């Protein structure tokens, strides 16, 4: 009878010790996991931004446009702004490309006479439709969604990932 009581007391103390260790471990791990997984689980805000009116760009013309990201932070300053190449294909069709080369992210420039995008860093060349013409870029320029809203041209923006990590 006495041995039975000792075993029960021993099991009780082991369980109490495990519980005393588990509770602080859970309390410490909840903020750590929420900080690590929170940005991954957050839905990125996207917004349509007006970047031009229909009369600003002629058919066949390519222009550099600047816009504010979808979720600018108050302290972001200039980094809240982004740019894109906007091209008018037809009267009612626009296409927008990222200004960054798909190779290493250098800014590409538009050469109107050659109808090519050129990357000065490693000699990447893109056709006017954003496909790779020559050089090291592994894939075409990133396309950005464009829509026409009444007389305005709008592009879909998303926050720059690095700016939302610190929220």
UniProtKB/TrEMBL annotation:
Gene3D superfamilies: Rieske [2Fe-2S] iron-sulphur domain (2.102.10.10). Its cofactor is [2Fe-2S] cluster. GO terms for molecular function: 2 iron, 2 sulfur cluster binding; metal ion binding. Keywords: 2Fe-2S, Disulfide bond, Iron, Iron-sulfur, Membrane, Metal-binding, Transmembrane, Transmembrane helix. The keyword Lipoprotein does not apply. The chain crosses the membrane at residues 12-41. Residues 65-155 form the Rieske domain. SUPFAM superfamilies: ISP domain. One of its GO terms (cellular component) is membrane. InterPro entries: Rieske_2Fe-2S, Rieske_2Fe-2S_sf, Rieske_Fe-S_prot, Rieske_Fe-S_prot_C, TAT_signal. PANTHER family: CYTOCHROME B-C1 COMPLEX SUBUNIT RIESKE, MITOCHONDRIAL. This is Ubiquinol-cytochrome c reductase iron-sulfur subunit. It comes from Flavisolibacter ginsenosidimutans.
